[in-house]
Amino acid sequence: MLHSATLAHDDLVDGGSIRRNHATSSSHTFPVSLLVGDYLLAQSTSELASLEDPSLMKIHSNILLAVCGGEYQQWYLSGKSVSRQTYFDIIEKKTASLFAGAAEMAAVLSGTDSETRANLREYGLEIGTLYQLVDDVLDFIGDEAVLW
Q1: Are 103 and 141 within one domain?
Q2: 93 with 111, same domain?
Q3: What is the DSSP secondary-structure string of the chain?
Q4: For a designed S-S bond to 24, which of 11, 14, 77, 81 qualifies (C-beta 3.0 to 4.6 A apart)?
């Protein structure tokens, strides 16, 4: 739900009306798009809070801070040439932080030790970075008719 919320807000900011060959919430009016993202964010927060584990809420809030910061950074730099490091910083915040947080939450819920928790977080960060790299490449060279 959190990932869907971030996608709804991302599509709203970017003006993206199609994602994976389907209409996005931003293809509707601005208030509807915003409310869809907000509702999904609230629902994900509520579900997580029901688990009553403060460490999960901390991870969740760190994800939100990273994603919002990355979204703002991308918006601010829109249309400008950015360095490789800045690009990787943005995708770490916007996408990889979600994967890292999900992996870390799974570690917390399964009761693993702190080393395993850190390793799973790092694994999620790397997988999230790779996912976004592939997604961005497909945006440039992919053929929608073939991909979807």
Answers
A1: yes
A2: yes
A3: -HHHHHHHHHHHHHT--EETTEE-GGGS-HHHHHHHHHHHHHHHHHHHHTT--HHHHHHHHHHHHHHHHHHHHHHHTTTS---HHHHHHHHIIIIIHHHHHHHHHHHHHHT--HHHHHHHHHHHHHHHHHHHHHHHHHHHH--HHHH-
A4: 11
pTM listed for this prediction: 0.79
CA neighbor of 105 nearest in space, from 67, 69, 63, 66: 63
For residues 36 and 77, membership in a common domain is answered with no
Same domain, 58 and 121: yes
Q: Which domain holds residue 120?
A: 53-148
Q: Are 126 and 80 contained in the same domain?
A: yes
